Amino acid sequence: MKITSIEWGRISIPLRTPFKTALRTVASVEDIIVKLTADTGETAFGEAPPTGVITGDTSEAICGAIEHHIAPAILGWDMDDFQGATQRVQSALVHNTSAKAAVDMALWDLYGKKLKTPVFRLLGGGKTHIMTDITVSVNPPEVMARDAEIAVQRGFDCIKVKVGVNPALDVARLAAIRAAVPAETVLRIDANQAWTPKEAVRILNGMQEKGLDIELVEQPVKAHDLDGLKYVTERSFVPVLADESVFSPMDAMNILQMGAADLVNIKLMKCGGITNALKITTLAELYGAECMIGCMLEGPVAVNAAAHLACARGVITKFDLDGPMLCAGNPVHGGSRFESKDIYMCEDAGLGVSAVDGIVPLGALA
Ligand code: MG
């Protein structure tokens, strides 16, 4: 099986409601889709969201990296040497992890199709169902409480709350949400780097003293401030999850070695795809740390790939794969079924995606 063409284009999926974090506001998913075709006629899909404020990867950068570096590195490649293909993607250029993730997941899709096996089974997984949290955007406390109530009505029992815009309001935000949802609802929060280390400790311990029962906090301080992250991890009663601080497997190793965080958030777009994500799960196993699998604001092709990884590795115990749930439609045929909090795996070969509607072509190499 040889790769005979690589195509890329854009899809647009409107969101149910605008997505607001400490870093940005977004109204629709505008992702780059990659399609590989093999000489056997098999096709495979990958996806990358442009998330400039987090990864630095814009749509133009993703397409440029694929067109000029990654696609030429794998065109004509024989999938019998699958590992060689994944290595060529990673070594085609530095950074550009979103473009690499899109092509890497498409390679796993194609390899699974070649072996007629779903990727999560190929990786040894036996789980066929996971449950995701859902994100509540940053807004005034009463709006967030109402959004949390709506999420509970939609069946969610774990809510991720974005905080960090005007930190003085963060305790009030969480208090309003805690009062609005059932006691058993799990609340996790994401500060997206917005706090100083001391502010983080004060706010987090203030929340716990008020009995708000926060499961974990994501990225309380600046991504580069590993000493600050460790400061919070050592002093906060709320477990700390490193997100923007961990892109590569090497980043994960440094953080785990330092004891700078309790947990690590894996996102395919940060680490460059399933191949590198597997290395992070192995490191986490070695250090005895659990992982969250997360996603950017991304569509069902990429989140389906993340779900395959999540079902394959037991060290991934927290699931934040709500991208498709935030979308007002689904242009993808095949792959996981996304039903409210439930994600059911598809037993079709590869990643199981057979087609994607509405792709606006942007380029191809054949
Ligand atoms: Mg996060």
Q: Could you explain the architecture of this structure?
A:
- The structure is a single chain.
- With 366 residues, the protein is α/β, with parallel strands linked by helices.
- It folds into two domains: 3-116 and 355-365, Enolase-like, N-terminal domain (Enolase-like, domain 1), CATH 3.30.390; 121-352, TIM Barrel.
- Helix content is 38%, strand content 26%.
- It has helices spanning 59-74, 82-91, 97-114, 119-122, 141-153, 170-180, 197-209, 226-235, 249-258, 268-271, 274-287, 300-312, 323-326; strands spanning 3-20, 25-38, 43-48, 129-131, 134-136, 158-162, 186-190, 214-218, 240-242, 263-266, 291-294, 316-320, 332-334, 337-339, 342-344, 353-356, 360-365.
- The strands form four sheets. Strands 5-6-7-8-9-10-11-12 form an eight-stranded parallel β-sheet. It has a four-stranded antiparallel β-sheet with strand order 3-2-1-17, sandwiched between helices. Strands 4-15-14 form a three-stranded antiparallel β-sheet, covered by helices on one side.
- Residues 190, 192, 218-219, 243 line the site of magnesium ion (MG).
- Magnesium ion binds next to loops.
Order of helices and strands: EEEHHHHEEHEHEHEHEHEHHEHEHEEEEE
Radius of gyration: 20 Å
Helix vs. strand class = alpha/beta
CATH level 1 class label of the largest domain: Alpha Beta
| Distinct small molecules | magnesium ion
The CATH topology of the largest domain corresponds to TIM Barrel
What about the largest sheet?
A: 8 strands, parallel
Ranges where pLDDT stays below 50 over 5 or more residues in a row are none
Report the strand count.
17
Helix content: 25-40%
Overall structural domain count: 2
Share of β-strand residues: 25-35%
Count of individual helical segments: 13
Please tell me the CATH architecture of the largest domain by its name.
Alpha-Beta Barrel
